[in-house]
Specification:
Oligomer: single chain
Largest sheet: none
Family: Belongs to the TMTC family.
GO molecular function, one term: dolichyl-phosphate-mannose-protein mannosyltransferase activity
Helix content: 55-70%
Organism: Sander lucioperca (Pike-perch)
GO cellular component, one term: endoplasmic reticulum
Keywords: Endoplasmic reticulum, Membrane, Repeat, TPR repeat, Transferase, Transmembrane, Transmembrane helix
Number of strands: 0
Length: 741
């Protein structure tokens, strides 16, 4: 282990701070970068992972967290992405409990704090990787590279590629994984905090604790297991001080016999065996939890993995690596999604983009040769461990071991960026040593780089504050990405701007002609605008491309019903139910079709199925009451209405319908109570005032009837029948006021 100062450290253009001051400085800079995202909304994947995830709600059993994936789906489901991150979901649930609901501020604040803590802890990690492992008499880590580790930590704290992980709440998985990754590494280092002068002593207990923290990192995100690779490299290169280049020469040339007695004496094989066994157990447990089957991804998710031959697959994978490297080098073009045409496939060896692959490997080979062959042991160690920290955490996302569900994902670079920041800080120190006469210029350049990174982080985190700004920011980065246009269109539609949404949905379909979700949403808007023919064509095309698309089948049924194609509509509804067994909205729409066809029993059965699947389905309950009322089954209508109100005690529409039934049954007092309760909830309901007036009219409370007729007509002067009833009442009141002859 290196116990001397790193020779280039004093050349770094930063002040030498005390350990606590350095960590506070880094944490404050990290907060400065992302603080403006604290009051952002739930955006993009937050909708599925948080807003629609039932595992966050206190009413859901806590055990569900351990049985479901990150998105709340059961791990055994075919639609599950198999992302098992129960500790991350548990922190979401705690946020929900502390805030008393889905209030995004608490979620964002915790993310920002986690990034600040991780950035501060990076000083200790970098200090060990650059300057070696040493402890003072109190067991605290000695930092032999205080300036270099501080600079690397500042680069990490301000790197704009982290915005998705910090400003996007779903990025909590990456943050927690990184935190436990650091703790696992630092705990592994604790195993060598020797209480004696013997070099062969290490603590098995601390190694076991490190493995447990690795398991915790893996329960936050799968990437956490890669800390074992970093720990192993650290052990070999720093604890055992193995010269990898010299070792490889001995093994290959066999000129000098390999002496492994020193390595055996230091217990390296024991530690590697412990980590190997622990890693295998974690992988086995993960495989069993996942259901012994990998997640199923489509060509849209990762087109390179579906390329026609292995050569094209490897070429495109390497092109993806070069793009990830570019995001670390120049994080200016950032996008929330890189799929669907954002990165066109390389289909020929003559594609000009092959240059980027060659450049990437030339740089990597140059770094590896310096890391292995340099005569400078400090440079050799720093470069090697920097490359390990850059490459090893990225391995789960590289498509080599298994297919991943994305093209490029900025969030997976959160840990790998630490290796890049270490290498960048080393490069600054090396340049300062080599070109000392330009030290002031280098100092200004480093300061300018940090300022630009802070500004870019602030700008990008501001874009993550709302879906509108996030999605529109991607249009200039990935103009050929159909998903970007789809999300912009969806956001516009959600805000009521359906005209603009149509243009973006059309562009999404043009860019990706088999984009069934864009067809479905576009068909829905056209249906609402009564452009039924084109809506039917789009939805029919969507289900022909993806026959198990239940939502599109249901929407097609609604359109066909509007076109009075009743048989086709019924078949479409049943297709939707066939592909999604528990589909209450489809049963509701099927019931409406049957009601239009006067198939009253079938309609009631369909609506009853909807309420069984979704007990709070207000429309289905209300339609049952109305249908039974209209067909003269007042007693049954009353029973259904009362049952509905037990489940939905504040639903004013059901109160209104039940009040009408009770009025016809001459239960005037109860009917009045429900009308008045409904009006307390919704005082501007003209129909409720009108029907209450009719009740009072029948009941003989004519002044009250007059009052509510007038209120109804004030709210809706064109209310059907109300004016006629009001005029009839006025004539009756006039007759009563006339003196008897």
């Amino acid at each position: 282990m290196a116990l001397s100062e790193v020779y280039w450290d004093h050349q770094i253009p930063l002040p030498k701070l005390a350990p606590v001051q350095a960590k506070v400085t880094v944490a404050l800079v990290a907060l400065l970068c992302f603080i403006n995202s604290y009051d952002g909304e739930f955006v993009f994947d937050d909708s599925e992972a948080i807003v629609n995830n039932k595992d966050l709600k206190p009413t859901t059993p806590l055990n569900n967290i351990w049985n479901n994936d990150f998105w709340g789906s059961n791990l055994s489901s075919n639609s599950s992405h198999k992302s098992y991150r129960p500790l991350t979901v548990l922190t979401f649930r705690l946020n929900y409990l502390l805030a008393g609901g889905l209030h995004p501020v608490g979620f964002h604040v915790l993310n920002i704090i986690l990034h600040a803590v991780i950035s501060a802890l990076m000083i200790d990690v970098f200090a060990i990787l650059i300057g070696g492992l040493a402890y003072d008499v109190k067991g605290r880590i000695l930092n032999h590279a205080p300036k270099t580790s501080l600079l690397a930590a500042l680069f990490f704290a301000t790197h704009p590629v982290h915005t998705e992980s910090v400003a996007g709440i779903v990025g909590r998985a990456d943050l927690l994984c990184a935190l436990f990754f650091q703790l696992s590494f630092l705990t592994y280092c604790k195993a060598f905090n020797r209480g004696s002068d013997r070099d062969d002593r290490f603590s098995v207990q601390w190694v076991v604790v490190s493995l447990l923290l690795c398991a915790a990192a893996m329960l936050c995100k799968e990437q956490g297991i890669t800390v074992l690779g970093v720990n192993a490299a650290f052990d070999v290169l720093l604890i055992c001080n193995v010269n990898v280049y010299e070792l490889s020469q001995r093994l290959l040339l066999r000129k000098i016999p390999l002496d492994v007695s020193e390595i055996l004496r230091m217990g390296l094989l024991t530690r590697l065996a412990l980590m190997g066994l622990g890693g295998l157990l974690m992988l086995y447990a993960r495989w069993r939890i996942m259901g012994t089957g990998p997640p199923a991804f489509t060509e849209v998710d990762n087109p390179a993995s579906f390329a026609e031959n292995i050569f094209l697959r490897m070429v495109n994978y390497n092109y993806y690596y070069s793009l990830n490297a570019w995001l670390l080098l120049c994080p200016w073009w950032l996008c929330f999604d890189w799929s669907m045409g954002c990165v066109p496939l390389i289909k020929s060896a003559t594609d000009w983009r092959m240059v980027w692959l060659l450049l990437l490997w030339c740089i990597l080979i140059g770094l590896i040769s310096q890391a292995l062959c340099s005569q400078d042991s400090q440079r050799r160690r720093t470069l090697t461990l920097g490359l390990v920290l850059l490459v090893v955490p990225f391995l789960p996302a590289c498509n080599i071991f298994f297919r991943v569900g994305f093209v490029i994902a900025e969030r997976v670079l959160y840990l790998s960026s630490a290796g890049y920041c270490l290498l960048l800080a080393y490069s600054v120190g090396h340049c300062c040593c080599r070109w000392s006469k330009y030290r002031k210029l280098l100092c200004v350049s480093v300061l300018a780089l940090l300022c630009v990174c802070v500004a870019r982080c602030a700008l990008r985190s501001h874009q993550w504050r709302s879906e509108q700004s996030l999605f529109t920011s991607a249009l200039s980065v990935c103009p050929f990405n159909a998903k970007v246009h789809y999300n912009v269109g969806k956001n516009l539609a959600d805000r009521g701007n359906s005209t603009a949404a149509i243009a973006y949905y059309r562009e999404a379909v043009r860019l990706h002609p088999t984009y069934v979700h864009a067809m479905n949403n576009l068909g829905n808007i056209l249906k609402e605008r009564n452009e039924l023919i084109e809506a039917e064509q789009l939805l029919s095309k969507a289900v022909s491309i993806q026959p198990d698309f239940a939502a599109a089948w249901m929407n097609l049924g609604i359109v066909q019903n509007s076109l009075q194609k009743f048989e086709e509509a019924e078949q479409s509804y049943w297709n939707a139910i066939r592909f999604r067994k528990k589909y209450p909205d489809c049963y509701y729409n099927l019931g409406r079709l049957y009601a239009d066809l006067n198939r009253h029993v079938d309609a009631l059965n369909a609506w009853r199925n909807a309420t069984v699947l979704k007990p709070d389905h207000s429309l289905a309950w209300n339609n049952m009451v109305i249908l039974l009322d209209n067909t003269g089954n007042l007693g049954q209508a009353e029973l259904i209405g009362r049952e509905a109100l037990r489940l939905l005690p504040n639903d004013h529409t059901i109160m209104f319908s039940l009040a009408n039934v009770l009025g016809k049954l001459q239960k005037y007092k109860e009917s009045e109570g429900f009308f008045l309760h409904a009006l307390r909830i919704n005082p501007n309901a003209a129909s409720c005032h009108g029907n209450l007036a009719v009740l009072y009219h029948r009941w003989g409370k004519l002044e009250l009837a007059k009052k509510h007729y007038e209120l109804s007509l004030k709210l809706d002067p064109e209310a059907p029948g109300t004016r006629d009833n009001y005029n009839m009442l006025r004539r009756k009141l006039d007759q009563l006021k006339r003196p008897t002859p």
